[in-house]
Amino acid sequence: MIGRITAPHILCVKNITLSVDEAVIRTVRLYAAERGSSVNALVREFLANLARREDRARGARQRIRELSKQSAARIGSRSWTREDLHER
Asked: How far apart are the C-alpha atoms of 35 and 19, rounded to whole Å?
């Protein structure tokens, strides 16, 4: 059998410095250790999830804008007053 040749994966990473309360760090270190992880891995995962959610939300907002431009529905002039809404 001939060995497979795979393309190398190049990851570009950026180091950041965070200021976090000592009590928070202690708690998070314990949390990470209990899960066989590290604070760095937890932060990296959190930020990746945040970025994915924001990308999805941005895409959804863009699709809504596109659909609203294609829609035949139009908003007419206001036919009511504030007082009309509060009448009992």
From this structure: 23
pTM of the full predicted structure?
0.65
Domain locations along the chain: 40-70
For residues 39 and 25, the answer to whether their CB atoms sit within 8 Å is yes
- 23 vs 77: which has the higher pLDDT: 23
63 burial level (CB within 10 Å; 0-12, 13-18, 19+): exposed
SS3 83: helix
Mean pLDDT for 30-58 is 97
CA 75/CA 68 separation, integer angstroms: 12
Amino acid residing at 2: I
